[in-house]
Structure prediction request, 629 residues.
Amino acid sequence: MLYMDCMNLLDLEAPPDGALTEGTAHASSSSSSSSSNTSLSKSDTLSVDYYEGFNLNFIIDQSDAEKLMPYAQFTPLKLAGTHIKEHEDKANINQRGLRGESTEKTSALPSAEGYYISLYAAKIGVEINGELHRVGRADIFTYTIDPNGRPSLLIVGCYMEIPKMLQVLGDAGLQHYTQIITDLAQDSRTGKEAYPHYLAEVFDVSEDGVIISGGDVEESIVIDVKDCVEEGSSAKFTRQFVNANSIAWRSPIDKNINFFNQDFIDAPVRAFTADDSCMADQQIGHLHKQLPSSAKLENIEAYGSSDEAVVWKYDDLTESEGTPFLTNDEKQKAISFKRRVYSDMLLSRSTAIENGEAESLISLVQGENSVFIIWELSLEAVAVLADQFNLAEQGIAIVPIKVAEEGVARHIIALNVYDSEIEGDLNGKAVRYEWSTFVSKNQDSMTPYYMVIQAGSSTDTFDPVSGKEKATDVSLSRDGDVVALVVNTLTANLHLGTESLTIDREYTFANGKVYWSNGVFDAVYFDSSLVLAKPKMSTKHIIDMAEDFEWAALIGYKDPIYSFVYEDANTYLVSPWCNMKETNPLYAETKLPTFGGMAKWSSSQVKSGQREPSVLITVYGNHPVLPRL
Prediction:
């Protein structure tokens, strides 16, 4: 739903004239003097700010949904709805959770089931000649199951506001702006724009609605919710809708992988039913030309304002080795443009990070066979742990959380051991471990977050509590169905069975903020790979703790309540040490130079074509029912 297009071209040797046909892929020759290595992965993240916005959700017939699938192996996704309302009293839920009872919420009044096509209209912040301007953008998309079986979005069109400063420059300024927009939304197979862009002279967004008109938009689009009936208290996006937003395709080989956290997942949504009185105020105008004949407006959703940020990050990827339909000169020009623009953006951001004017964003890959072993904590153990880290003085409380969807909320301590690869970390790959529990800064907020109480690595590392940390004794391996690990004086062998565990939504989303024991936190963003993952449960675990094992007293040498393994790797985008104050010695000593240096390294990697740029998207919105930590 929220994304910014980035060109993704592979630097491949072009075949002889006339040799290209639709869908043909050509491999480059490694010995060719006209080609350079452009194997790309991730890099530091760039930023685009989204402000207040509206979703217009239209239900369409299945036959029309199928016609919107222009590529083989893409099939329409039938949504159970786009939002749902939770009607149970939060205080009641919280009290039951503290007693260790199930905190499953009951829901009412979901939006309608069906095949959808949607328009998302919002204001974005873009920099033009060093100045920040708010420019309107509205994306048209439908919902699909992609060739990998993943719920996704398929982009079919876009409206873009012409910035006022460019409108006065006449045709030359407009041509330049149009070229930039289309260059950043290319189909890598053809070198042409992946979907149509319509430029508008007027693009107004307020809490009452949207107006898009002028330019290519001959018939005005006017959305007005002043007289629409709001569906009671704030709704939330459905899990299925959130998962679909994790991937946005613009061609069968070009896609964005979106990373999000609780700020988007739990964002309060103002939902309006498109009844007769509401529809009387809507002018679909030019949008009619983009919609199937069966399209019927089902609801209007509003979220975001100019206050607090709901942040998305994403990577732009090409799915296959398809050669763009460009000459060598055109191809090299496009590749050079991409590398130069995004490398310069990253370099500028690295300077801002070093000066404390911007937060960094780095990629963390949690490798295959990531292990979780979880023990329940008694109330006495909770009190001991809270006292040990002075959590009460920080206004932080350890809270119960559900691990399994069918389980109950409990106070827990968890051990996670995993192979890690951190972008820009010159130490390379390492095995990391984390002992953690779950906390909230205000128990009544019902928003639990992950808290690391101890961490270590097989290579030298650093954290916001202790600063530099020497390598420690930690290892992880797998032999058949047995996963073995060592963490200092604890050893464990997990024998995996065939049964998978359905992880509770709240447990997964608690990864959105990772607190450290001194109250500093990392903001973490993840895609639907983590949301949809079902780890493999162990049928038998053999755990040996030495007498001097640090957490033995808390655990009481009891059996864990869960032990499971994520067999597939997961990628996270992490903004580390977000709330660290300047008064913390590690702020100037470690945070600014280290993460600024990582961003500079990423800039050089993008410029040389060895890494792929990522893009940050910020949606500004209020969270009246979700107090921020």
Q: What stands out?
A: Residues 1-48, 87-108, 319-326, 620-629 have pLDDT under 50 and may be disordered. The first strand starts at residue 45 and ends at 60. The two ends are 26 Å apart (CA to CA). DSSP finds 13 helices and 34 strands in the chain.
